[in-house]
Write a structure and sequence with these properties.
The protein is built from two helices and no strands. With 43 residues, it is mainly alpha-helical. It starts with a helix and ends with a helix.
Amino acid sequence: MYIGPDQLAPVASVFAAVAGAVMLFWGRLTALIRRIGRKKDPR
């Protein structure tokens, strides 16, 4: 089964969009995870 660039380009584009969104909101995402972790295990 051959997968050409014309079939792979949309998959790569979606992956790049998801990766870009994660990098854009990385600080907020890690802060949210830390806040949830502190509520479960306050020290």
